[in-house]
Amino acid sequence: MSISFSMGIVELPPEGLRLIYTNPAGLIQMELTQEAFGKLFRELNYTDQFITQWENNYRATKVAGKTMHFEDHTYETDQYFATEASYLGVGESGHDRYCFIVKDITERKKTEENRIKETLAISQMSKMSSLGEMAAGITHEIYNPLCIIRGFADLLKKRLSAPDVNPTALILFAEEIKANCNRITSITEGLCYISGGGPMESTAKVHVRTIVEQTIKVCRERFAKSDISITLNGLDSEALIDCKQTQISQVILNLLNNAYDAVLESGNKFISVTIIEEETEVAIKVLDFGHGISERVKEKIFDPFFTTKPVGKGSGLGLSICKGIADNHNAKLFLSQNAPGRTEFTFAFKQASTS
Ligand SMILES: Nc1ncnc2c1ncn2[C@@H]1O[C@H](COP(=O)(O)OP(=O)(O)OP(=O)(O)O)[C@@H](O)[C@H]1O
Ligand SMILES: [Mg+2]
Fold this sequence. Notes:
Layout: E1 5-12, E2 18-22, H1 24-30, H2 48-64, E3 68-74, E4 79-90, E5 96-104, H3 106-161, H4 167-195, E6 204-207, H5 208-225, E7 229-233, E8 240-243, H6 245-264, E9 270-278, E10 281-288, H7 295-298, H8 318-328, E11 332-339, E12 342-350
Parallel strand pairs: 7-9
Antiparallel strand pairs: 1-2, 1-5, 3-4, 4-5, 6-8, 9-10, 10-12, 11-12
Helix pairs in contact: 3-4, 3-5, 4-5, 5-6, 6-8
This protein binds adenosine-5'-triphosphate and magnesium ion (MG).
The site of adenosine-5'-triphosphate has 23 residues, from helix 6 and helix 8.
């Protein structure tokens, strides 16, 4: 039988928490009989850890001078309980008395847990799909400089085996090889940055410009290959935000991918990313000159699984996940411009203190 509601009275003498009374539902919930009335919880087979926690909670209730709310989790039975406790005053025995109402909230907690697990799974899935999408582009981005390196290495070999070696030309070849190695390093650095955190990533204070720069490193060449140019403005910003940086990268990447899709077919293959500081806020703005968003579509863009892209191209999760990440950071994410051929999303944060 599932009992969801119980109430009763406890007393807190120096020797420990004592059960004075509980209703029949309470007896069932605590697996006790009326013989338990008047007994210390220590005599009723409760662990010291629980009893100490409850005692502290009841003492805190007296100090607060108002009804307090506590939650417990019983690992053995995997149940969750919510307790409302109030101080009643000193009882006949001369000790503090409290009344309590306990509700079994296991079902609600399990639903919440499942929702969090699902959100994490979806977020991870979307991250993987963004990474998957990027993989083809990244292969190209790394393949290009590698071909150039190979070409110059061949030339070096040929020139070195020729009778009249010209050191100046050889140095130029070596410089080219170095420059292309740097291109690859930059792409892999960006990749490490945006794929680093897992669901347990901790919050850190980070420069907004660093996140933007590292994220753009990963897709700049892919965009360039489709003749799409990305300009960056406001990189002199010193603004800091408290965030899970890989999640912020994920949002920027999703906005850039949407902008990429939108401008691909348009004549104006231009995207700009701007960091703007306004008083206590800092915003990242992603502007594109693509096909724009119709009024009908605009209503739904943040809905999960809403997409106007062909089957297999878009999952429709991008913006809904971005919104979830923004909410988790107390940040705002919204469509800030939507004129024909001009679409801008703004991602705005409270700035973190510099100390
Ligand atoms: N910059 C943009 N320009 C035009 N339309 C856009 C832009 N950004 C989003 N949209 C519209 O919003 C819809 C939802 O975007 P969202 O990022 O959530 O999903 P998606 O890009 O379709 O798929 P996914 O990101 O999951 O691969 C898109 O299908 C598109 O119609
Ligand atoms: Mg998208």
